[in-house]
Design a protein that fits this description.
The protein is an alpha+beta fold. Helix content is about 35%, strand content about 35%. Strands 1-2-3-6-5-4 form a six-stranded antiparallel β-barrel. Strand 5 and strand 6 form a beta hairpin. Helix 2 packs across helix 3. The radius of gyration is 21 Å and the shape is elongated. The termini are far apart.
Length: about 190
């Protein structure tokens, strides 16, 4: 029998999950993703006899493993965002880039990180506190933690949500348990 295309450990590493609470769910996502691929293209890609050489077989396995990682990652992120019951959207974190052209400083923004997020409007105490501080159009973006998001600060990064741009007001890492992060941002109008 051929080795697994994607092990639980490989999937957790790809998802940047260091805890064990989601192991059963991640394993189920791997099986679901593999069944999805099999349903789309058949299971022939797994059979060594269908390839002309060992090299072609290994290449096919690497491609299948990559596709499995992508599908598992997408399902896991949507599940993570959906737990909170908000609007699940794609988010782009942009990083400020400063250069000098013809002796003049030029500022541009480059895409830094893309992720799924749960978009939440402020409500209750948080809303009234924001209004008192004259902060209008403030939104919370909740997403799964990853190492790239540790670098976030209010001066060098901003959020792009669809065609709308937001300046980051704060990044809340919760109890630093490396599971999720809430980015509080104000729309640039």
């Amino acid at each position: 029998m051929a080795a697994e295309l994607l092990t639980l450990e490989q999937a957790k590493k790809h998802l940047r999950v260091s805890y064990d609470e989601d192991d059963e769910e991640i394993q189920e996502l791997i099986l679901t993703a593999e069944a999805y691929i099999d349903g789309c293209v058949g299971a022939g890609y797994k059979d060594k006899a269908n390839y002309e050489s060992e090299e072609e077989y290994e290449k096919g396995r690497r491609i299948a493993a990559l596709l499995l990682k992508k599908i598992v990652s997408d399902m896991y992120e949507v599940r993570q965002a959906g737990e909170c019951g908000g609007v699940i959207m794609y988010l782009v974190i942009q990083k400020r880039k400063k250069t000098v052209e013809k002796g003049r400083p030029v500022e541009t923004w480059e895409d830094y990180h893309k992720c799924w997020c749960d978009v939440k409007s402020l409500y209750g105490k948080e809303l009234y506190s924001a209004l008192e501080a004259k902060l209008e159009n403030v939104v919370n973006f909740e997403t799964r933690f990853c190492l790239k998001l540790e670098a976030l600060n209010t001066k060098e990064y901003r959020v792009k949500w669809g065609e709308r741009m937001f300046n980051i007001i704060a990044a809340d890492y919760g109890k630093y348990n490396r599971r999720k992060i809430v980015i509080k941002a104000q729309e640039i109008v």
